[in-house]
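Design request, tokens follow.
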């Protein structure tokens, strides 16, 4: 199945797909016009603040075929392969030529370690082409005292962005940027409704493109195009297939989804940061800007890297129910052990309710290195069709 002809024939979807496949294009044009670009490592860098500073936010991503010369030099092999590939581009000069600054959020423990390595490289080897960087030290415990600390942290990041941009960030700037981000998220929820309907009109591969393109393009344009796709997709063919929910490692490309959908299933949801979790929770304009930022980024659904097992079990159960999934697939890259810690309890809860699960752990990157995977997926999907 993958991306269907009905999607390819949509001018709006075609434009989103272009930005998804050409991830440097919009940022490059922005820089050519004199703008500054902020790369984001981690899923919790506030887009609203970067945009309010008049800068362009882009997500750091891994190149699947890059030679890991710098990563092999500096990192232990216990770093997961996606982070290693991202690190390579941050140290070998690739991103030095594409972004002006780097904002890192402590979304995972391995990203914290990556930040420390980058800082040490800057200290010991200042000639290395590592972009100027800042670290957002969120506290993830959901208690008032920690949220107050997070507001202090976000005020520090706001000051750093003012320093980088040479521009004072007014509250009205943040409100305006937040309104654009909220529009984009609202449009993505329209896509989600069509994807999770009793008879889906949008499949997982298409949804991943629509969501992921937001990370690399003008957000107002993304909102407009996504709403247009949502309107057109109401007339796209219905999808009658086994419904699968994916959890575990973030999927920066559509490869896994296309492989699943090739064999007669449809991915109706996921809880990783390149999927449904990306557009969860809006900026609440009834709060002060700092509190609204903290509320939006810290009160989304629990990430597998920053939550107790009981919280993850409950969150996954709720997400699977909302998606109407027939089965759940756990897909975890090698050396990303934290994403698999919740698996035994989650499996027990899901299968106790009659929802079959399938686990793929210690997976190589890129996905094509797992030569046996497609046959295994086909057998699992065939078992669901009955």
């Amino acid at each position: 199945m993958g991306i269907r002809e009905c999607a390819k024939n949509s001018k709006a979807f075609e434009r989103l797909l272009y930005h998804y496949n050409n991830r440097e294009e919009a940022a490059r044009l922005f820089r050519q016009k004199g703008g500054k670009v902020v790369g984001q490592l981690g899923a919790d860098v506030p887009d609203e603040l970067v945009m309010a500073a008049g800068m362009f936010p882009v997500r750091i991503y891994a190149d699947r075929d890059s030679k890991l010369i710098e990563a092999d030099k500096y990192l232990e092999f216990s770093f997961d392969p996606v982070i290693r590939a991202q690190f390579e581009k941050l140290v070998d000069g690739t991103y030095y030529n594409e972004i002006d600054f780097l904002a890192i959020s402590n979304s995972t423990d391995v990203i914290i370690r990556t930040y420390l390595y980058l800082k040490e490289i800057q200290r010991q080897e200042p000639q290395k082409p590592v972009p100027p960087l800042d670290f957002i030290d969120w506290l993830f415990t959901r208690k008032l005292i920690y949220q107050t600390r997070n507001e202090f942290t976000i005020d520090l990041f706001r000051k750093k962005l003012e320093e980088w941009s040479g521009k004072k960030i007014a509250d009205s700037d943040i409100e305006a940027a937040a309104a654009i981000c909220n529009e984009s998220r609202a449009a993505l929820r329209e896509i989600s409704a069509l994807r999770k309907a009793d008879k889906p009109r949008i499949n997982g591969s298409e949804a991943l493109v629509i969501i992921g393109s937001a990370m690399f393009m003008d957000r107002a344009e993304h909102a407009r195009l996504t709403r247009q796709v949502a309107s057109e997709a109401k007339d796209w063919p219905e999808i009658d297939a086994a419904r699968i929910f994916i959890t575990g490692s973030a999927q920066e490309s559509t490869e896994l989804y296309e492989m699943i959908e090739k064999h007669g299933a449809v991915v109706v949801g996921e809880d990783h940061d390149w999927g449904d979790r990306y557009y969860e929770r809006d900026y609440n304009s009834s709060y002060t800007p700092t509190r609204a930022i903290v509320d939006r980024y810290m009160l989304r659904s629990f990430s597998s890297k920053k939550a107790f097992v009981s919280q993850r079990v409950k969150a996954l159960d709720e997400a699977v129910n909302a998606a109407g999934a027939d089965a759940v697939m756990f897909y975890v890259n090698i050396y990303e052990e934290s994403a698999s810690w919740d698996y035994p309890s989650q499996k027990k809860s899901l299968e106790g309710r009659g929802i079959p699960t399938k686990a793929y752990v210690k997976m190589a990157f890129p996905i094509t290195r797992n030569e046996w995977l497609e046959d295994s997926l086909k057998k699992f999907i065939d078992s669901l069709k009955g």
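Comment from the thread starter after seeing the answer: thanks! The domain at 172-385 is CATH 3.40.50.11900 (Rossmann fold).
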